[in-house]
Amino acid sequence: MPAVGNIYGQRSQPSCWDRVKYGFAMGMCVGLASGGVFGGVNALRLGLRGRELVSSMAKVMIQGGGTFGTFMAIGTAIRC
């Protein structure tokens, strides 16, 4: 089944800026997930519990998400 076009019957591609935003969002999701896994394992290995565990995991998840999202956005911008 062919893709549905816009109101003028033409298929429009996302702009380069939209692709960069999508790349950042996808990288952010992957970075959050991997940061949760690796940060959680590391925090449990260090013996953190309760509020310290949550705080440590949140920090690692946001750092991982921001870093990986930035690299994915840069990679997507190079491909535009």
UniProtKB/TrEMBL annotation:
Q: Where are the transmembrane segments?
A: 22-48, 60-78
Choose any GO biological process term that the UniProt entry carries and state it: protein import into mitochondrial matrix
Q: Where in the cell is it found?
A: Membrane
Annotated Gene Ontology cellular component terms? TIM23 mitochondrial import inner membrane translocase complex
- Give a yes or no for keyword Transmembrane helix in this entry: yes
The entry's keywords: Membrane, Transmembrane, Transmembrane helix
Note the Pfam families from the entry: Romo1
Identify the stretch annotated as signal peptide in this record. none
What superkingdom heads the lineage?
A: Eukaryota
- Report the protein's function: Has antibacterial activity against a variety of bacteria including S.aureus, P.aeruginosa and M.tuberculosis. Acts by inducing bacterial membrane breakage.
**Can you tell me which family this protein belongs to?**
Belongs to the MGR2 family.
Query: Per its UniProt record, what PANTHER family does this chain match?
Result: REACTIVE OXYGEN SPECIES MODULATOR 1 (PTHR28525:SF1)
Name of protein: Reactive oxygen species modulator 1
Record the organism.
Medioppia subpectinata
